[in-house]
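Protein 1 of 2
SEQ + STRUCT:
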Amino acid sequence: QLQLVESGGGLVQPGGSLRLSCAASGFTLDYYAIGWFRQAPGKEREGVSCISSSGGRTNYADSVKGRFTISRDNAKNTVYLQMNSLKPEDLAIYYCAAAPSNVDCGSPKYWGQGTQVTVSS
């Protein structure tokens, strides 16, 4: 069964940190660009970050630049999103998605089920 599974979400205070993981099973992530997306209550899903298949190219939404870091370990078939200095507006369900491209996360083929991130004091 081909699937992506996110983990690492939870409740954190403003200013805190979380690290999300996205693990693939049933296929290798080596040839996929991986994106992190999020959907806040009442809002449309938005792209947060993207990493190329090699890991050599990354990009971020302006709202998370300087606070979030995406990385990947192809040997572990896993992609990470380190989130620091979290703000209440980062509250959302976070999804990872695999796109059959070396660099473009825009048309994912596989999606995870999502993990909830709540930022609140």
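Protein 2 of 2
SEQ + STRUCT:
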Amino acid sequence: QVELVESGGGLVQSGDSLRLSCTVSGLTFGNYAMGWFRQPPGKEREVVARISWNGGSTLYADDVKGRFTISRDNTEKMVYLQMNRLKPEDTAIYYCGADSNFRAVKYDYYGQGTQVTVSS
């Protein structure tokens, strides 16, 4: 059974930093691209960042470039999202996802999500 579990969300102020973590089990982690997605209140889920199976390639949404960094540890089966200079518009439920296709529009697997709230 594939399981992705996110952690690290919380309530922070504008300009603060947070680091999200995602632990993965039930699949061959090194064979999968990983991504972070978010769903703001009242909106559809959107991709935030992606990382290839070996970490050699990354992609970011335009509004997080230069502020967020995705990384992974294939030994520990973990993926991270370092979020700096947070803004109120970053408020959302954040999900990690796994897929064999780095550029897939929708990933095969998602976690349950962790809430990030940024106050102004």
